[in-house]
C-alpha cells in the first residue's frame, strides 16, 4: 500500500541544514499494524508527516497503491489524503465550539457529502467508539479519553484505508490510554492499516511490526 524509497528530508535552521530523515526505505502493507519508536528529535514525527502527505520529502519517492505521488501538486495531495488517510493526534485538535457530532461531521461537509448520509455515518461512527450518548456534547464537556474517541471517529468517517496515530495516548491517563489503544487495534483487525508513532515502549511493543528510528535513520526493525 505504501512504499517509501530513498526518502530524505532536510530543514534549514538558520545557516545550518538539518537532516531530519536520512535514506528511509519503508514498505507498509495493507492491513498492517506498525509502530514507529525512537527518542525525541529522532525523526518520528517528520516521518509521520511525510507518510501523511502533510510534508513532502526533499528527495526520494513515495508510492501509494503503486502510484508515485511524489510530484503531485498540493491540491492532488490533499485529495489523496482526504480519500485515503485518517489522523489521530496527541492533542485531539477538535473544534471547541462544535459538538462531538459536528466535529465528526466536518470532513464530510468539506467533501460535499449530503446531509442524510452525513447523519447516518455520524451515528454509526459514534456508536463504534462508544459515544452515542455524547453526540451533543462539546469538547469542554468530555473527558480526555472521550475527546480522543471523538477524534478517532472523525479520522475514520471518510473510511480511509490508513490510520496514522501520533502519540495517541500521550495526553491520557493509563486507563484511558489502554482503552484508546484497544479501540485502534480493533479497527486494525477490521482491515485498517494502522501506524502508531510513540515514545512509549509498552505501546510500541503491541504492534505486530516495529521499527526504531534514530537520527533520521531506521536503526532496527522487528
Automatic annotation (TrEMBL):
GO cellular component: plasma membrane; transmembrane transporter complex
MF GO annotations: ATP binding; ATP hydrolysis activity; transmembrane transporter activity
Alphabetical list of InterPro entries matching this protein: AAA+_ATPase, ABC_transporter-like_ATP-bd, ABC_transporter-like_CS, ABC_transpr_LolD-like, MacB-like_ATP-bd, P-loop_NTPase
PROSITE patterns the record matches: ABC_TRANSPORTER_1, ABC_TRANSPORTER_2
Source species of the chain: Methylotuvimicrobium alcaliphilum (strain DSM 19304 / NCIMB 14124 / VKM B-2133 / 20Z) (Methylomicrobium alcaliphilum)
Pfam families: ABC_tran (PF00005)
Segments traversing the membrane: none
Coiled coil: none
Start and end residues of each ABC transporter domain: 2-222
EC number: 3.6.3.-
Family: Belongs to the ABC transporter superfamily. Macrolide exporter (TC 3.A.1.122) family.
Protein's UniProt name: Uncharacterized ABC transporter ATP-binding protein yknY
Gene from which the chain derives: yknY
UniProt keyword terms in alphabetical order: ATP-binding, Hydrolase, Nucleotide-binding, Transport
Amino acid at each position: 500500500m505504501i512504499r517509501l524509497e530513498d526518502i530524505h528530508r532536510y530543514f534549514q535552521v538558520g545557516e545550518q541544514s538539518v537532516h531530519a530523515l536520512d535514506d528511509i526505505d519503508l514498505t507498509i502493507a495493507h492491513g498492517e499494524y506498525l509502530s514507529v519508536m525512537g527518542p525525541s528529535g529522532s525523526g518520528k514525527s517528520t516521518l509521520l508527516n511525510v507518510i501523511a502527505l502533510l510534508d513532502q520529502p526533499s528527495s526520494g519517492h513515495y508510492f501509494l497503491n503503486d502510484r508515485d505521488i511524489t510530484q503531485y501538486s498540493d491540491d492532488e495531495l490533499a485529495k489523496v489524503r482526504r480519500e485515503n488517510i485518517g489522523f489521530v493526534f496527541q492533542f485531539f485538535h477538535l473544534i471547541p465550539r462544535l459538538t462531538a457530532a459536528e466535529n465528526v461531521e466536518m470532513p464530510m461537509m468539506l467533501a460535499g457529502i449530503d446531509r442524510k448520509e452525513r447523519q447516518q455515518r455520524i451515528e454509526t461512527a459514534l456508536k463504534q467508539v462508544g459515544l452515542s450518548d455524547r453526540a451533543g456534547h462539546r469538547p469542554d464537556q468530555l473527558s480526555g479519553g472521550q475527546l480522543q474517541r471523538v477524534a478517532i471517529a472523525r479520522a475514520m468517517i471518510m473510511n480511509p484505508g490508513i490510520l496514522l496515530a501520533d502519540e495517541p495516548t500521550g495526553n491520557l491517563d493509563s486507563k484511558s490510554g489502554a482503552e484508546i489503544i484497544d479501540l485502534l487495534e480493533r479497527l486494525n483487525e477490521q482491515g485498517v492499516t494502522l501506524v502508531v508513532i510513540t515514545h512509549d515502549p509498552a505501546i510500541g511493543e503491541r504492534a505486530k511490526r516495529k521499527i526504531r528510528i534514530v537520527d533520521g535513520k531506521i536503526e532496527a526493525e522487528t
